[in-house]
Design goal:
This is Glu-tRNA amidotransferase. InterPro entries: Amidase, Amidase_CS, Amidase_dom, AS_sf. By secondary structure, the protein is of the alpha/beta class. The chain has one domain: Amidase signature (AS) domain (Amidase signature (AS) enzymes). It is 33% helix and 18% strand. The chain is built from ten helices and eleven strands. Strands 1-3-2-4-6-5-10-11-9-7-8 form an eleven-stranded mixed beta sheet, with helices on both faces. Helix 6 crosses helix 7. The longest helix has 24 residues. It starts with a strand and ends with a helix.
C-alpha cells in the first residue's frame, strides 16, 4: 500500500514533504484514515503549518497514511492499508503517523509532518529508524489540524537527518531561533523500565556524546502515562465519538473509542492533578540537567503478525506519552539496530526550549553510530 492516501503536486521546487492526513490542505479532503470521513468536504484553507511550508518553497508530495483517526500506536489501518516499514519490514511502522515516517524512511519525501498526542511522531520515528520531533505544546500552530480541541496534540516534523528537521521547524514555527551553544550541557539519564539491551544502548549513546550525565528519577512517570491515557481518551471521544455510530470505524479503533466513552469528568480532573505534579517534577529535573535522556520505546516494536488487535498495544507509548501530558518538547533519535529491530533515543528539554533540544540532538547525531 502506498504511503500516500492522496498524491499531491503543490508548491515550489524545494524539498518534498508529506502531510499527515489530519492536516488541512486546501481543496483536499482531510479523512484521517477513516472510512466514516470518506465523503467530507474538501478543506477550504490550508493549515497554518502548510502555509509555512509553501512560503518556504517546500513541495507537497502527498497526504500521508495513518492509524485511523490518529488513535492507535501500530500504524495498522485495514481501510487505507498499512505502510510497510522499509528498514524493518517484519515490524509495525508505528502510529499514528505511520505514513509520514515510512515516506521519510523510504525516501518518497525528504521530510514529513505528523502529529503527536501520545507519541504519534516519536513512536513511528522509532519504529522506522528516522528522526521525529514533538515540539513544546502550543509552540507550533494547530489551526487547520484535527482534532480542533486538544490539550496534548502537537504538529512536528520527521526527517532522515537533523539539518532537514531543523529547516522544517523554521518553516512551521516563525519563532524558531538560532541554535544555542550547548557547551556545559549536562544530561539527566531518566531511570525507566525497559529491556536491558535498550537501556545499554541509550547509556552508550549518552557516553558517546561526551556530555556529562547523571541518573535522575521522575517519581510520577508511571502515573503520568496513565493520566495521559485518561486525557486522550476523553478528548478523542469528544472529537470523534459520534463516528462510532456510523458503523464505518475500524473495529480496533471503535473498540478503543467505546472504552474511552467511559471516561468521566472526575477521571480527567484526577489526571490533571497528576499532570501538574509530573510537570513540576520534569521542570525540577531540567533545572539541574537541561536535557533528559531515555529510550523512545521500552522494547522492540510488535511484529506485524502479533499486532492484529492494536487496541491492546497502547503500552508501546509507555515512555513517550508522559511528555505529552507535561507539554515538554521531545525528540526521537535513531540508534543502531539490535538483533534486527530498531532502537531509538529520546531527548527532552524545558518547555519552549526547542532550539536547545534540537542543538543537543544534532550533537548526538554527529557522535553516535547511525543505523
Amino acid at each position: 500500500m502506498s504511503v500516500f492516501v492522496e498524491p499531491l503536486d503543490i508548491g515550489g521546487n524545494g524539498p518534498r514533504v508529506g502531510i499527515k492526513d489530519t492536516i488541512d490542505v486546501v481543496g483536499v479532503r482531510t479523512r484521517a484514515g477513516c472510512r466514516a470521513l470518506e465523503s467530507v468536504a474538501a478543506a477550504r484553507a490550508n493549515a497554518d503549518v502548510v502555509e509555512g511550508l509553501l512560503a518556504a518553497g517546500y513541495h507537497l508530495a502527498g497526504k500521508t497514511n495513518l492509524h485511523e483517526l490518529a488513535f492507535g500506536t501500530t500504524g495498522i489501518n485495514r481501510w487505507t492499508g498499512t505502510p510497510t516499514n522499509p528498514q524493518f519490514p517484519a515490524y509495525v511502522p508505528g502510529g499514528s503517523s505511520s505514513g509520514s515516517a515510512v515516506a521519510v524512511a523510504e525516501g518518497s519525501v525528504d521530510v514529513a509532518l505528523g502529529t503527536d498526542t501520545g507519541g504519534s511522531i516519536r513512536i513511528p520515528a522509532a519504529c522506522c529508524g528516522v528522526f521525529g520531533l514533538k515540539p513544546s505544546f502550543g509552540r507550533v500552530s494547530r489551526k487547520g489540524v484535527m482534532p480542533r480541541d486538544t490539550s496534548l496534540d502537537c504538529v512536528g516534523p520527521f526527517a532522515r537527518d537533523m539539518d532537514n528537521l531543523i529547516a522544517v521547524m523554521r518553516a512551521i514555527d516563525p519563532s524558531f531561533g538560532p541554535l544555542p551553544d550547548i557547551a556545559g550541557v549536562r544530561i539527566g539519564l531518566v531511570e525507566v523500565n525497559a529491556t536491558p539491551t535498550i537501556l545499554d544502548a541509550v547509556s552508550a549513546a549518552v557516553a558517546a556524546s561526551g556530555l556529562s550525565a547523571c541518573k535522575v528519577q521522575l517519581p510520577d512517570f508511571g502515573a503520568a502515562y496513565a493520566a495521559g491515557l485518561t486525557v486522550i481518551n476523553a478528548e478523542t471521544w469528544a472529537a470523534c465519538g459520534e463516528l462510532v455510530g456510523t458503523g464505518l470505524v475500524g473495529e480496533d479503533v471503535a473498540r478503543r473509542l467505546q472504552a474511552a466513552s467511559l471516561t468521566t469528568p472526575d477521571d480527567v480532573a484526577a489526571a490533571n492533578l497528576v499532570r501538574d505534579r509530573f510537570a513540576a517534577q520534569v521542570d525540577a529535573a531540567l533545572r539541574d540537567f537541561p536535557i533528559l535522556a531515555l529510550p523512545t520505546m521500552a522494547d522492540a516494536p510488535p511484529r506485524l503478525e502479533d499486532a492484529a488487535d492494536t487496541s491492546k498495544l497502547v503500552a508501546m507509548t509507555s515512555l513517550v506519552r508522559p511528555f505529552n501530558l507535561s507539554g515538554h518538547p521531545a525528540i526521537a533519535i535513531p540508534l543502531p539496530a539490535i538483533d534486527g529491530y530498531p532502537v531509538s533515543l529520546q531527548l527532552v528539554a524545558a518547555r519552549h526550549d526547542d532550539e536547545r533540544l534540537c542543538a543537543v540532538a544534532a550533537h548526538f547525531a554527529r557522535h553516535i553510530n547511525r543505523p
